[in-house]
Amino acid sequence: MKAVLSVIFAVLALSGCSKSVDEQADDYVDVSFSLCGTKVKAYSQGDDGKIRVICDNDSYFLVKSEETLAYMQELNGAYCHGKGFSLFNERKNYYTFTCADDKNFNIPK
Question: Which N-terminal stretch is annotated as signal sequence (predicted)?
């Protein structure tokens, strides 16, 4: 009986947490879509916390946090004129990205 209650509690706890994780993932995908300029083919967040997005046009980017995704929107507007990225990587001290129109940038953090 104790084991059954433990399993039920674990399922309820996980289902309660998964909704907020799913909502958070939806937010990331929404931002990712605007940065891809097309549909999102694959989206994942690894155990290391990094967010990986592959766009339908085979462009991709890798970021460390939600804050970086928000900053990417600013970079997209300022450097890519809102067209999105074909490549984006967050490095230790700078961001490296290529706009959809093939312009390359290294921006210090």
Answer: 1-20
Instruction: Identify whether the C-beta of residue 36 lies closer than 8 Å to the C-beta of residue 48.
Output: no
Structural domain spans, the chain: 21-108
Strands in 3-79 per DSSP E: 40-45, 51-55, 60-63
What DSSP state is assigned to residue 65?
Answer: -
Whole-structure pTM over 0.90, yes or no?
no
Does residue 1 surpass a pLDDT of 50? Answer: no
Name residues whose C-beta falls within 8 Å of residue 97's C-beta, 6 or more positions apart in sequence. 61, 75, 79, 80, 85, 87, 88, 89, 104, 105, 107
How would residue 15 be classed by pLDDT, with cut points 50, 70 and 90? Answer: very low
Kindly tell me if the per-residue pLDDT of 79 is higher than 90.
yes
